[in-house]
Write a structure and sequence with these properties.
The chain has about 325 residues and is α/β, with parallel strands linked by helices. It has three domains: about 160 residues, 3-Layer(aba) Sandwich (Alpha-D-Glucose-1,6-Bisphosphate, Chain A, domain 3); about 100 residues, 3-Layer(aba) Sandwich (Alpha-D-Glucose-1,6-Bisphosphate, Chain A, domain 3), CATH 3.40.120.10; about 60 residues, 3-Layer(aba) Sandwich (Alpha-D-Glucose-1,6-Bisphosphate, Chain A, domain 3), CATH 3.40.120.10. It has twelve helices and 14 strands. The strands form three sheets. The chain has a six-stranded mixed sheet, sandwiched between helices. Strand 10 and strand 11 form a beta hairpin. The longest helix is centred in the N-terminal third of the chain and has 20 residues.
């Protein structure tokens, strides 16, 4: 049975992550999308963004999803190459679509794959949406799956290959004070952990005139035999190289590039909790932006203290990016994690 967790649906490849289950899930999502149209809740173009990472079967699964969307009269916008999850989310928002998905198991071990589902604005799909899709799935069988050939979908214009890379990079650069970064002449070591971050992150940093070296960037579905999740334990090589070769900074990302790990020039691992605290404080104290913050029950409570000092509110939600997204939207928060 397909069940959504805190970060989408994930399963072991060959056991539950199979063509049948991916196709069944795609059909369930397509039916949900069509229901929104029939109920008059969807007024814009009925389209669906599909992206994928470097895991085993990710590209093929993205094609399976695209074929099923096309067969259900939903235009599939298939990102033409491997893509970080934030790029896929950006594309959903940029194209003004209401739905999208990334084929990824994020920071899980190599034997997993999965699907993250996105809603309007590039946000993680809400609990209400995923519960409704699960209900639809309970009534579907393999015989209900609609599918066309990939090339037929291309020829009909129902599958469109897209390349949002340049727009995404420009979108990021316009919100960064590139001149300030250029002044530092930073020497940075990047570790994408065999994932999808290299091209985007390297392009942004080079645009800011940083000197960049990269490790662990080849295609390896086994992720070098380690968990593709940045932590003090998994970033020992990055830490040692930053110190030995005198880099200003080491940056690591997880398998689908929506998690971050930092090593400072002294070799200290900067925990994501600390990064979030620094970012929130920076927005309040240096940028003068007003607003609350959303954290889950496992995130540092130092955020509560900072929010209180600035007359703001820290909102607590359950674990899961979808709860963070909902909490930020509901409360007008400026950051969350």
């Amino acid at each position: 049975m397909i069940k959504f967790g805190t970060g989408g649906w994930r399963a072991i490849i060959g056991e539950e992550f199979t063509k049948d289950n991916v196709s069944l899930l795609a059909q369930g999502i397509a039916q949900y999308v069509k229901n929104q149209v029939h109920d008059g809740k969807e007024k814009n173009e009925v389209g669906f963004v599909v992206g994928y990472d470097r895991r085993f079967l990710s590209k093929r699964a993205a094609m399976w999803i695209s074929k099923i969307m096309a067969a259900n009269e939903i235009t599939a916008y298939l990102i033409h190459d491997i893509a970080p999850t934030p790029l896929i989310m950006y594309t959903v928002d940029c194209l003004k679509l209401k739905y999208g998905a990334a084929v990824t198991a994020s920071h899980n071990s190599y034997d997993y794959n999965g699907i993250k589902l996105f809603a309007g604005g590039g946000r993680d799909a809400s609990l209400e949406v995923t519960k409704e899709i699960e209900k639809i799935l309970n009534g579907l069988t393999l015989k209900d799956i609609k599918e066309i050939e990939f090339e037929e979908g291309i020829n009909l214009g129902k599958i469109k290959k897209i390349d949002p890379f340049n727009d995404y990079i420009d979108y990021i650069l316009q919100d960064i004070d590139v001149s300030k970064i250029k002044e530092r002449h930073l020497k940075i070591l990047l570790d994408p952990m065999y994932g999808v971050a290299k091209t985007c992150l390297q392009t942004v940093l080079i645009s800011a005139r940083c000197s960049i070296d990269v490790i662990n960037d080849r295609h390896d579905p086994l992720f070098g035999g380690r968990l593709p999740s940045p932590s003090a334990e998994t970033l020992k090589k990055l830490r040692d190289m930053v110190v030995d070769r005198k880099y200003d900074l080491g940056i690591a990302t997880d398998g689908d590039a929506d998690r971050l790990g930092i090593i400072d020039e002294m070799g200290k691992f900067i925990h994501p909790n600390d990064i979030l605290v620094l970012l929130y404080y920076y927005l309040l104290a240096y940028k003068g932006i007003k607003g609350g913050v959303v954290r889950n029950i496992a995130t540092t409570h130092l955020l509560d203290r900072i929010a209180k000092d600035y007359g703001e509110v820290c909102y607590e939600v359950p674990v899961g990016f979808k709860h963070i997204s909902q909490g930020m939207e509901k409360n007008g928060a400026i950051i969350g994690g």
